[in-house]
């Protein structure tokens, strides 16, 4: 139990900022990065799907589905991390 708590503290220290920052700006930057990364990931999925199927319709369908499925998966991933790091 004590080792588990120490591991959690060490992991939190890795992600905890070392200097003070304006929370609003950091949150905005994180949101922009998340959105742009999701766009890049979806475009990648559509391109790979097109090369594999040769169909734009199928590629856009896969990309459209993937956007929502990955958001849902990320939500549950984030909740698991939040529960684990309490």
Describe the structure.
- This protein is 86% helix and 0% strand.
- It is mostly helical and 86 residues long.
- The longest helix is centred in the middle third of the chain and has 31 residues, at 23-53.
- The chain starts with a helix and ends with a helix.
- The relative contact order is 0.08.
Shape: elongated
What structural class should be given to the helix and strand makeup? mainly alpha
**β-strand number:** 0
Cα distance spanning the termini? 14 Å
Compute the CA-based radius of gyration.
18 Å
The overall average pLDDT, rounded, is 82
Percent helix, as a range, is over 70%
Number of helices: 3
> Which regions have little confidence, pLDDT < 50, spanning 5+ residues?
none
């Amino acid at each position: 139990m004590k080792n588990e708590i120490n591991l959690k503290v060490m992991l939190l220290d890795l992600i905890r900022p070392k200097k003070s920052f304006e929370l609003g700006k950091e949150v905005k930057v994180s949101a922009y990065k998340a959105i742009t990364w999701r766009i890049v990931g979806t475009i990648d999925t559509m391109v790979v799907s097109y090369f594999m199927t040769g169909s734009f319709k199928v590629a856009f369908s896969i990309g459209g589905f993937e956007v929502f499925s990955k958001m849902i998966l990320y939500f549950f991933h984030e909740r698991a991390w939040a529960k684990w790091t309490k």
